[in-house]
Design a protein that fits this description.
The protein has one helix and two strands. It is α+β, with helices and mostly antiparallel strands and 51 residues long. The protein has a two-stranded antiparallel sheet with strand order 1-2. A hairpin with a 7-residue loop joins strand 1 and strand 2. The chain is elongated.
Length: 51
């Protein structure tokens, strides 16, 4: 989902995520959201923010 940032700015928000459970690995969840965001960010000429 892409939305214009509140306040009329030029930024975009891309909603990605996963289902976190008791067995979840934080690193695996992080990689999952990077993977989900990759296609849209690539199409926009953007990169995943460092973190």
């Amino acid at each position: 989902m892409l939305r214009e940032r509140a306040g009329g700015g030029t930024g975009l928000s891309l909603g990605v995520g996963g289902a976190i459970t008791a067995d979840s690995s934080p690193q695996e969840e992080y990689e999952e959201i990077r993977t989900k965001a990759f296609g849209v960010l690539s199409a926009l000429g953007a990169e995943f923010p460092p973190g």
